[in-house]
Design brief:
eleven-stranded mixed sheet, 452 residues, Amidase signature (AS) enzymes, globular, 15 helices, alpha/beta, binds glutamine
């Protein structure tokens, strides 16, 4: 009830929730109280969570922040949310995102922008973006509207909004969390994961969300470690890599200073700092912005006005498809579909898509090589703090540059975590990113706990 009250008070300003399921939440809370009284409490018993509106929730509208899915109520529950319910979590509702998770500012949502709960200390009244695509998840957690939230990360959508809102968030290894029942954006990159106030809270949530799922053929059949226990491991004897390619020209001094500070904290706890090279880093953004739209154009072909959600009638079937898609998709989604179909089309496939896949393999190889020398890597999470709403909106390339530190982990499949670590000169939160080996989230949590 306290969280529902907070949502009622603050959501009109923040617009973090698209759908609030107050009745269901209270009913679930009562059932949870009863399980606790009966001595049957699960690991997340009674914990109120917000669910990114990209996860299918049985009987609750799931929009992907798109008009085209506006009236879609799934008859089934995603595996990740089923796992959370199994452990006793209570869902408060569905939170806002960029349309189909495409964006870095939550401005492409058909349900309106989300406001970052943080403001600059000089109180200039400027509204800041919460980051994207999981902007609703991050804003809801930062504003104390939920104790944690589900999110997804295709190119940074967990880590960038977590950094902009001063919270923690982990993109686990690709395959750690099932994608079943999560609306697809770019299937070889999409990774569900949690955002929460602390590294340890993320560990607890991730443990519940993870696990093999026969319904997702890319789900890893591996045991789920005790992530919360890993938080207390310390970093003594660990080697932490500092990739020189992540030292960007023009990056604010505070970010560079915070990075050095993070390395100092790790050194003080007994880690060894090692300079490393990830030579193909400069190709990561162009590679991502070919692979992700290519897969998106294929995945989004299913929204034809026949099978799901909104339909605009037409004179014949083709006309119906065209009218439905013209009215149902926003500008950024259309841009991605056009780029994606172009790079996959005969004559351009080899030059763009196939080339991007080859470069992707080189980026992965850079990390494989680095992880023979180090146990984890520390970088900034984002090249800036949260920026004002409206900025970069009419410049897609400037928007894409936000993802410079995050897309590499998706291309390589490795785990990456944003840890809230400091503030800029305006008092806005800044995050550092910890990258780890495939399926070694435990080391990421251990390092993150020291940096936090
Ligand atoms: N900002 C990136 C994009 O727009 C990443 C989005 C995401 O991770 N879902 O594609």
């Amino acid at each position: 009830q306290a969280h529902l009250d907070a949502i009622q008070a603050l959501n009109p300003r923040l617009n973090a929730f698209i759908t609030v399921t107050a009745e269901k939440a209270l009913e679930a809370a009562r059932a949870s109280d009863k399980r606790r009284a009966d001595g049957l409490a699960g690991k997340l018993e009674g914990i109120p969570l917000a669910i990114k509106d990209l996860f299918c929730t049985a009987g609750t509208r799931t929009t992907a922040a798109s008009r085209i899915l506006g009236e879609f109520t799934p008859p089934y529950e995603s595996t990740v949310t089923s796992n959370l319910l199994r452990d006793g979590a209570v869902f408060l509702g569905k939170v806002n995102l960029d349309e189909f998770a495409m964006g870095s500012s939550n401005a492409t949502s058909a349900y309106g922008e989300v406001e970052n709960p943080w403001q600059r200390s000089n109180d200039d009244g400027v509204r800041l973006v919460p980051g994207g695509s999981s902007g609703g998840s991050a804003a809801a957690v930062a504003a104390r509207l939920a104790l944690g939230a589900t999110a997804t990360d295709t190119g940074g959508s967990i880590r960038q909004p977590a950094a902009f809102c001063g919270i923690a968030g982990i993109k686990p290894t690709y395959g750690r969390c099932s994608r079943w029942g999560v609306v697809a954006f770019a299937s070889s990159l999409d990774t569900p994961g949690p955002v929460a106030r602390t590294v340890e809270d993320c560990a607890i949530l991730l443990e519940s969300m993870s696990g093999h799922d026969p319904k997702d053929s890319t789900s890893a059949n591996l045991p789920v470690p005790d992530f919360a226990a890993a938080c207390a491991r310390g970093v003594k004897g660990l080697r932490i890599g500092v990739p020189k390619e992540y030292r960007l020209e023009g990056m604010p001094d505070e970010i560079e200073a915070l990075w050095q500070q993070g390395l100092e904290w790790l050194r003080a706890e007994g880690a060894e700092i090692v300079e490393i090279s990830l030579p193909h880093t400069k190709y990561a953004l162009p590679t991502y912005y070919i692979v992700a739209p290519a897969e998106a154009s294929s995945n989004l072909a299913r929204y034809d006005g026949v099978r799901y959600g909104a339909r605009v009638d037409g004179q014949d079937l083709k006309d119906l498809y065209e009218r439905t898609r013209a009215a149902g998709f926003g500008a950024e989604v259309k841009r991605r579909i056009m780029i994606g179909t172009y790079v996959l089309s005969a004559g351009y496939y080899d030059a763009y898509y196939l080339k991007a896949q080859k470069v992707r393999a080189l980026i992965k190889r850079d990390f494989d090589e680095a992880f023979t020398k180090v146990d984890a890597i520390l970088t900034p999470a984002t090249p800036s703090a949260a920026f004002p709403a409206g900025e970069k909106q009419d410049d897609p390339v400037a928007m894409y540059l936000n993802d410079v530190f995050t897309v590499t982990a998706n291309l390589a499949g490795i785990p990456g975590m944003t840890v809230p670590a400091g503030f800029d000169r305006h008092g806005l939160p800044l995050g550092l990113q910890v990258l780890g080996r495939d399926f070694d989230e435990e080391t990421v949590f251990a390092v993150g706990t020291v940096v936090e």
